[in-house]
Design goal:
The structure holds two protein chains of two kinds. Chain A is α/β, with parallel strands linked by helices. Helices cover 44% and strands 18% of the residues of chain A. The chains are: A alpha/beta, B alpha/beta.
């Protein structure tokens, strides 16, 4: 595919976003952007994706009225059940979309990064199902805390490549995937898992994930006849949050983005005690975009921290940085303790074990019920089976 | 010396080292020794925590340098102390420049005797503020082109770059490789303006350096192999290699390419 990249001006969100990548990646990224631009309005592509989302991923997911949690909070709470998507998280919405784009671009290999392992699993699923060679970069630290997901990926034929550089977590896995792609782009698609990174990823991932918000909007209007007062979603890079927020941006609905407060606001020369880039970060460039990042005064990226591997990321998608700056999205925080509280509460009250990432949204709702209004939707972005060992360890400390 | 003056005596050998590796104190003397051995331009890398364009060798050097106390303030001190009469060039990632502010960064380059900047994750489209800052402070801003850069884009980059054009010998990241030459000749030939052409990424032997000169490059850039020798404490071997490389490219000048 030939395309003109003489001027590779990227879509921006206010000042955020952009295309801060090595020259070798400019052409692959522009080819991807143009392929996606062409396919997003292509009926055949849309039908194929819709079919897979319905029959393979198990959409649409329920919007469930959590009666017991509602009683506890004094607010009517609906849960958007992305934990019921095949693979156990919302991640498959995006991997299916991107894998179909990759297939139509003639790529034969997928690479991905993963933190909690959910995006790696969702990539392994589409790799197996749609016939790609699949390799997933995963930090050594994350491999240790997400052993089950590593095994799931391997069962489905993906190779998990341990990343030993830097902090050996999600950000380093993204670095490694970008390095791989700079040499392999001719036959390989880099399937980025979150609404971050260089153009077109933030827009493309948001679009594929916005099926969450489109469904939720229709469902709440059907049962309640009105929109909710607020929507709560956890934020690491921001894919589940942008997915549920995007269709409500023009509405009078409070959008609450809950970041990982971790152990608190503390930091050292090299590490932050949290993953709260919107809350504690400053403007900077990470993984190809200008956004909010956790960094030292010289611009070295700090290692983030969260009990939830999927929120353990020192950056955030550029569109969320922009929406937070304009005030349309309100950044909030739940620390480890609050997230564990949410994890236990939802398990006990509703019989739903949420992912530790999603438990940040639940924990925030429990700690700040007044922020929710009279009716709220909480995005349960994934299920918590993968986190049982982590929670057991946490409580034994 | 300005970069353009250095290119009056082409072919040139451009040597990259990571500032602060093994220690900030060691860097000025290393620069002097490289120049004495034949380096025509020295690229001083500012270590970054997340060097996405670099392979394992330079990643490891960056980590060692950061651990040894390297930061942007120390970098400019070290650069100023490295008093050589060949051009010194900054190489580093854009977030480090952004954090200091492009104007202040370019100003500090000029003050510490750095006459050019290479920022591998900053394509011309995003370079507006730094481009203006470099102009204000008389610092060349050097852009890169890769084998997969289309012709239309290549001519845009040729127009935007100043000092020289950095041609990436192969796709992928930095690091010594044996297959340096496959796409290089083609890329050199596609450059249509008379901007000086320097080829880097993967060059590790005098033969490879000579080959890119024979293919039409005005300069050969070596990095990872030097960084590796510094990591192993073999500075004398490094001086020897620089001498051999310089020798090889001077002999290669004006010769027809063997492979390309």
């Amino acid at each position: 595919m030939k395309c003109d990249t003489a001027n590779a001006a990227a879509v921006k969100f206010g000042k955020y976003g952009g295309l801060f990548v090595p020259e070798t990646l400019v052409q692959p990224i522009m080819e991807l952007a143009q392929a996606y631009e062409r396919l997003r309005s292509n009926d055949d592509f849309r039908d194929e994706l819709a079919g897979l989302l319905k029959n393979f991923a198990g959409r649409e997911t329920p919007l469930y009225h959590a009666r017991n949690l509602s009683r506890e909070l004094g607010c009517k709470i609906y849960l958007k059940r992305e934990d019921l998507v095949h693979g156990g998280a919302h991640k498959l919405n995006n991997t299916l979309g991107q894998a179909l784009v990759a297939k139509r671009m003639g790529k034969t290999r997928l690479i991905a990064e993963t933190g909690a392992g959910q995006h790696g699993v969702a990539t392994a699923i589409v790799g197996a199902n749609l016939g790609f060679e699949t390799q997933v970069y995963m930090g050594e630290v994350d491999i240790e805390r997400q052993k089950m997901n590593v095994y799931r990926m391997e069962l489905m034929g993906a190779e998990v490549i341990p990343v030993r550089s830097g902090s050996r977590t999600l950000k380093d896995a993204i670095n490694e995937a970008m390095r791989d792609w700079a040499a392999s782009f001719e036959h390989t698609h880099y399937l980025l898992g979150t609404a971050a990174g260089a153009h077109p990823y933030p827009s493309m991932v948001r679009d594929f994930q916005s099926v969450i918000g489109i469904e939720a909007r229709g469902q709440i209007l059907e049962v309640e006849g009105r929109l909710p007062d607020s929507i709560v979603a956890c934020v690491g890079g921001g894919s589940n949050a942008m997915g549920i927020f995007a269709p409500f941006l023009e509405d009078k609905v409070r959008l609450l983005a809950v970041e990982a407060g971790g152990r608190g606001p503390g930091k050292t020369d090299k590490t932050a005690d949290n993953g709260a880039s919107l809350g504690y970060g400053t403007d900077g460039i990470l993984h190809g975009a200008l956004t909010k990042i956790l960094q030292d005064p010289y611009g070295q990226i700090l290692e983030s921290y969260s009990v939830a591997a999927g929120l353990d990321y020192p950056g955030v998608g550029p569109e969320l940085a922009y929406l937070a700056e304009t005030g349309r999205v309100q950044p909030k925080m739940a620390d480890d303790k609050t997230a564990i509280l949410g994890f236990r509460a939802l398990s006990k009250l509703e019989g739903i074990i949420p992912a530790l990432e999603s438990a940040h949204a639940v924990g925030y709702a429990l700690s700040e019920p007044d922020a929710l209004g009279e009716m709220a939707i909480i995005n349960i972005s994934g299920r918590g089976d993968k986190d049982l060992a982590t929670v057991m360890d946490y409580e034994n400390l | 010396m300005k970069i353009s003056e250095a290119f009056l005596n082409k072919p040139l050998l451009i040597v990259y080292i990571c500032a602060g590796d093994p220690t900030p104190e060691a860097t000025p003397d290393l620069v002097r020794r490289l120049v004495a051995a034949g380096a025509d331009i020295v690229e001083l890398g500012l270590p970054h925590s997340d060097p996405i364009a670099d392979g394992p060798t330079i990643q490891a050097a960056a980590q060692r340098a950061i651990a040894a106390g390297m930061n942007t303030d120390v970098y400019f001190d070290v650069a100023a102390q490295a008093d050589v009469d060949v051009p010194k060039i900054f190489m580093g990632y854009y977030n480090m420049v952004y954090a200091r502010g492009p104007d202040k960064f370019a100003e500090d380059c000029a003050k510490s005797g750095i006459c050019g900047m290479i920022v591998p994750d900053l394509p011309p489209e995003e370079a507006g503020p730094l481009h203006d800052a470099c102009k204000r402070h008389g610092v060349d801003l050097i852009f890169l082109a890769a084998p997969n850069t289309p012709d239309s884009r290549l001519s845009m980059i040729e127009k935007e770059t100043s000092g020289f054009l950095y041609l990436v010998a192969r796709t992928g990241v930095t690091g010594a490789k044996s297959d340096v030459l496959q796409s290089t000749g083609d890329l050199i030939a596609r450059v249509s303006s008379d901007v000086p052409r320097a080829v880097g990424f993967g060059i590790s032997t005098p033969e490879q350096a000579a080959e890119v000169i024979r293919a039409g490059a005005d300069a050969a850039i070596v990095g990872s192999v030097c960084v590796d020798l510094i990591a192993r404490g073999e500075v004398e071997r490094l001086e020897e290699l620089v001498r051999e490389m310089k020798d090889a490219i001077v002999k290669a000048k004006g010769k027809a390419p063997i492979v390309c």
